[in-house]
Amino acid sequence: MTLRFLLEKEFKQLIRNKIMLVLTVVFPLMVILVMPWAATMDIKNIRLTVVDNDHSPLSEQFIEKLSNSSYFRLVGTSYNYREGIHAVEVGTADMVLEIPSGFESDFINGWNVPVQVSINAVNSIKGVMGQSYINTFCQMFMEEQQAAHPTADGNNRPAIELNTINLFNPTLDYKFSMIPGLIMITAIVLCGFLPALNIVTEKEQGTIEQLNVTPISRTSFIFAKLIPFWIIGVVTLSLGFLFAWLIYGLVPAGSVGLLYFFSIIFIFTMTGFGLVISNKSSTMQQAVFVMFFFVMIFIMLCGLLTPVNSMPDWAQAIAALTPTKYMVNALNCIYLKGSGFMDLLPDIIALTTMLLFFNVWAVLSYKKSE
User: Fold this and answer.
1) Average pLDDT over the chain, rounded to whole?
2) How far apart are CA 255 and CA 212, in angstroms?
3) Residue 254 to residues 166, 260, 336, 341, 350, Cα–Cα distance (Å)
4) Exposed/middle/buried for residue 274 (C-beta within 10 Å: 0-12, 13-18, 19+)
5) What count of other Cβ atoms lies within 10 Å of the Cβ of residue 33?
6) Which contiguous run of DSSP H or E holds residue 242?
């Protein structure tokens, strides 16, 4: 009999907790709908710029077939290789393909055709897959041309010889593109989860009521909650950067000051987000569940596992609303590309906007009347 009443009480509490009921349905739905698309290993929409030094019908046909492929997206043509590399450096292209002069004449004469491909290997998965895709495409293209224009000598079968350059990560070592993202995840756990549990813990313990009757302002209260986690976040990320250097020899190619600038913005953003959840939650269980839900979305859509450009449009739209997308891009660009402040200005604007939004919301969502 006692067990029946206890179970009745627990189920009534669960039913009254509207957020838990919504998450019970939404969480598995989001996992099934979003994760398979966000975590796909089928890399598509590789942004390609072409340097055509031949300007022949065959080279134009080659470029046209590339642009029609679902794996490549032609973002422009460059007059020279230096211009094409600049497009990769500023982030408007992922790959530069340079077609040499004499491309068509070499094919007609039965000679192998050298083609140079330079790939942005900041994301090692995109680098490996992009190299594989372009190699397969070249083989298929030459087979089609040989079938359409057979030679008298059956052994005279020209092929495209790819000379591949992996920019920014020559060895395609996945650890170099993964470690900055893993450092970011530690910041999410400490600067997101811990603040999310902070105020709701005081609610459960009853100490929040004592604070509510004191003359402190909402702003002072929230900043008192945030500042310790800001310090913890900076220390945690500093240790992550130190361990990455000591264990893997990974040092930023760009400015250390810019690296810390992004880190501080991200820490402020995540602590503000965590406090918003803490203010809105009634129990610690609810705060953990909600925070875990958002953290999974942040990690799966940040570009650490799968390039954002390869995701469906709706997933890219959701990713654009996550701070982790901009942080992962900034960390990889600073560590591997050596990007500067102006190169990362869009990421700075996005993160700063989220910082202001979540921290202002954290102040306004705290109600002393509780």
Assistant:
1) 80
2) 44
3) 18, 11, 8, 10, 20
4) buried
5) 12
6) helix 218-248
The two structure tokens encoding residue 65? 């077939």
What DSSP assignment string belongs to 135-197? HHHHHHHHHHHHHHS--SSTT----EEEEEEEES-TT--HHHHHHHHHHHHHHHIIIIIHHHH
What strand order describes the sheet that includes 46-52?
Answer: 72-78, 46-52, 95-99, 113-120, 160-167
Output DSSP code: residue 100. P
As a whole number of angstroms, the distance between CA 305 and CA 307 comes to: 7
HSE, CB side, 13 Å, CA atoms: give it for residue 3. 0
Which residue, chain included where needed, has tokens 């224009």? 149
- pTM beyond 0.70, yes or no: yes
Task: For tokens 């702003």, name the residue.
Answer: 219
Amino acid at position 210, single letter: Q
pLDDT in tens, 57-70: 888 888 888 888 87
